[in-house]
Specification:
The chain is of the alpha/beta class and 416 residues long. It is built from twelve helices and 20 strands. A ten-stranded mixed beta sheet has the order 9-7-5-2-10-1-11-15-19-20, sandwiched between helices. Strands 14, 16, 17 and 18 form a four-stranded mixed beta sheet that branches. A two-stranded antiparallel sheet has the order 3-4. The structure holds inosinic acid.
Length: 416
Amino acid sequence: MSKADIIVGIQWGDEGKGKIVDKLAQEYDVVCRSQGGHNAGHTIWVDGVRFALHLVPSGILNPKAVNVIGNGVVLNPPSIIKELTQFSDLEGRLLISEKAQLNLPYHSLIDLAREKLKGSNAIGTTGKGIGPAYSDKINRIGHRAGELLNPAKLYESILEYFAQNKIIFDALDIVLPSNEELKGQLEEYSRELSPFIVNTTNYVWKALEENKRVLLEGAQGTMLDIDHGTYPYVTSSNTVSAGACTGLGLNPKDIGTITGITKAYCTRVGNGPFPSEDFGDDGETMARVGKEFGTTTGRKRRCGWFDAVAVKYASRLNGCDQLSLMKLDVLDGFDVLKICVAYELNGEIIDYMPSDLDNVKPVYEEIKGWDSVVGCRDFDKLPATAKQYITRIEELTKTKVGIISTSPEREDTIIR
Ligand code: IMP
């Protein structure tokens, strides 16, 4: 019986999981998503071609891998239908859990309307309906992918839902689709997606029993976890490794190696605290060189220095066996680099993550920069200062850096 390995983002998302999952997916038989929805955006570069994936697991670029969308995902049918048009050989290569919650177009309308109402206190969501879809799940009033197998029954059930929730739609000024539109949409979703809808829990159990190599691909990042992140400025799922179990029907004993993905610096999209954010030229340089614009929304990402306090916390929460340090090349050419090694909170220096990050100030340590690491594939060939930077990250986060990425290309990766 094999174990499932996990790739998990350990900052605020957008750590570059897509490249690592894509690289590792070449060696895995099954690649699974367990949480989140089309708020995720994996950018993958292969031979200079850019692929932007949202719901489909990154293993889709390995012709031999089977890709699973687990029960913990909120599935937006129009988004995945559009995404699937990029691929032609999907038979038997994509499985969608019948228990995955449906994220329907009206969820996005609720999301956008609520954000507007919040004004300056808005979370800065992706507007993709993630919170409302998960709320319906927890409220036990949502609909699941398996219901697409009987679109006529689903249609009746959604009309009932609209009637019961009319007061909310009216209060938010939301115009719902006409009955005809809704019927047409559901029939289309059913036609396009039914062939992929199965019991994925059984499939993944069987795959492990048959000693297949299974990879669980996280979406978003640990600091956006609904329980352990910077609430309320978080997403609506458990983004930590434990969430990968519930989102697929696995138990903790099924899990093998856990790799935490972190950038060599730090970014965040949306609102909420970000202690090591750099508002000056250095942050601008990271944004420009690192092309820090969201795959899903196109929003510019906030940039700052590597936060070792947050990564140490995230590594412990997730049980990371190793870190994968992404985009090291973006730090090329800086004279001096900073690492956030502690926080100052009410005059006290702390090296742990308080539940409220609003009032902390970063305490930095400075490290000399380097000229270039771009394209480097051999740890021994890295400049001495780059090695020192990596060693210091290992000491501060108490976690080994096992993988280092030195360009967007799949092969420009150091595996130690
Ligand atoms: P939501 O997930 O759309 O509800 O957004 C909640 C918060 O999570 C916002 O700050 C988003 O910017 C952030 N977020 C959601 N998905 C991602 C992602 O894939 N990468 C980075 N941030 C994300």
